[in-house]
Amino acid sequence: MTSPTPAAPQARDWWRRAVVYQVYPRSFADADGDGLGDLRGITSRVGHLAALGVDAVWLSPFYPSALADGGYDVDDHRAVDPRLGTLEDFDAMVRALHAAGIRVVVDIVPNHTSDRHAWFREALASPPGSRARGRYVFRDGRGPGGDEPPSSWRSIFGGSAWQRVVEADGTPGQWYLHIFAPEQPDLDWSDEEVREDMLETLRFWADRGVDGFRVDVAHGLVKDVDGHLDVHVEILDTGVEGGNHPLWDRDEVQEVYAQWRRDVLDAYDPPRSAVAEASVHPDRRARYADPLGLGQAFNFDLFACGWDAGEMRRAIDGGLAQMAAGSSATWTLSNHDSVRHTTRFGVPPREGVGSQEAAKAWVTSDGRDPVDLDLGLRRARAALLLELALPGAVYLYQGEELGLHEVADIPWDAVEDPIAVRSGGEEKGRDGCRVALPWTQDGPTFGFGPEDGALPGMRQPAWFGVVSAAAQDGVPGSTLELYRAALRRRRELTTDDDALTWVDDAPDVLHLERPGGWRSVTNLSEVDVALPAGELLLASDAAPDASDVAQGRGVLAPGTSVWMR
Ligand code: GLC
Description:
Low-confidence stretches: 1-9
Structural class: alpha/beta
Mean pLDDT: 96
Bound molecules: alpha-D-glucopyranose
Oligomer: single chain
Distance between the termini: 42 Å
Largest sheet: 8 strands, parallel
Strand order of the largest sheet: 9-8-7-3-2-1-11-10
C-alpha cells in the first residue's frame, strides 16, 4: 500500500515552489473509448506526467455535469461523472499519481451549482420565499407581472444575468441570478447550509487523499445583491481597486476561506493546500493568499502579457512585490480559459488591445487573420524558461509541453463553449485549447482513445499527429524534451531562497540572476544580444556554441532564452 500522501521534506509547503500541471479531464485521455476523456485515461498516462517531472496535477471538474460550461456546471460535488468513471477509479488514480510522487489538486466550484443539482431542482419545485429557494438568489421581477428581470446586470458569458422560472403551477415566476451561464445558478453564501455543505465537500475529497484544491471564481460567492438592484453594475469589472464590487471580491468572502482553513484545510496532516482563481485588483491578491485563508492565489499578470519585455518585466516585478508583501508567487501562461500562448505569441499585437483579446479575435476569425505560428512556438519555448526561472509556483496547462497550438477552425456548429452562443457569435470561445490531446502519430484519435473507440465531439486536426507525445518522445530539440529538461534542471537549481536580481545589460532583454549563481536570459528584442561568459545549461532553441559562451563570445538570437551559470 502506498501512503495516501507522499511524505516529503517540506510536506506542508510543497505548493509554494511546485510545478503544477492542469489536466482538463474530458480531453486528456479516453480509456473506455466513448470519445470523452476519463479518470482511467489519466491513470494510464501517469508515466507521461512522471517523465515530464511535474510536482502535482490539478484536475478541472470531473463531477457529474451536463457540460453546459465544460464541467464547471456541477450537478453533484461529491461524485464522479459516470462517463468519466467511478470513485474507485478516482482512488486508483490518486494512488497511481502518489506512487509516482505527484500530488493531486481538485477543482472546487463554490460560486454556483448546475441547474440539475438536487438543490436547484428542489428550489424550482418549491414556492417563492421557501427554504429551498434561499440557497440560491431568487428575486421577483420588475414591471407589470414581474416580466422584467430584477436588475439590468449582464452575465459574464453575455445576455442577462437573470433567468425566469416557471412556477410549479405553470405560471411565469421568479428570476434567479446566474453570473455565468443560465445552467449555473449562483448560490447564496449567506445561507448557513450552503457554507456547511461546502465544508463537507472539502472533507470528502481530503479524506480520499487529495492534497489541495483549486477554488473556482474565488472572488465571487459573497454578494450584495439587494443593495444594488437599482444600479447598473459592470459585471466585467472584477478587478476594481479596493475590491468590494457588489458582486465580486467583497471583504466578507475571506470569512468563508478562514473557516475552510480552520475547520478543514488545517485539520489535516499535512494541511491541504488551496489556490484561488481570483480575478481581482493586484493589490487585493494577498487577501486570497493569506495563510489564514486559502494560502495561494493565481497571478494572471504574466498570462496577460504579449511578447513585450516591458510588460513582462512589470508583471514579474508586480508579482515579486506582492510576494515580498506576504502574498504567494504563482506564474502561468495558459489555462483552459485562454488561447494557447504558443499561438498567442504569434498573433500580431493590435493597437489598444491586450494580447489575450487579440488572440481571441484571431480565434473568432477561425484562424484566418494573420498569425506566425513558428514565431509563436519559438517565443513560447523561450517564455517557458523565463517562467520556470522565477521564484514561486508555476501552473502549466495540458498540451503546452507538446507546443500545441490553438485549434481555431472548429466548425461553428461543433463549438461547445456557452460564450460562443451567448455572445451571438461575437466570440468563438475557449474550445480551441480543449481539443483531445494527441498521444500517438497515427490512429483515428491519435491515441487519445482506443483504436476502435468513438471520436471526440470536437475533432482533432490532421496536424496533431506530428506534434503528438510519441512524435516528440526522445527527439532532441522537441518541445516535449525541452519541457522535461527544463523541469529537471529547475529542480536541481532551485533553492528555498526566493531572491531574484535583474541584470539590466541590454534593451528588451530579461536577464535575471537566482541564488546559487544561475541566470536566465530571454531576448525579446529583434537583434542578437551578447551573453555574459559562463556555463551554458539549457537553451530554448538552437543553443549558442558552448565554448563561445564559456569565453564570453556567445550571442543569443531573438525569441530565445538560455539558462547559464
Ligand atoms: C472559472 C473557470 C471557467 C468557468 C467559470 C465559471 O473562471 O476557469 O472555465 O467557465 O469559472 O465556473
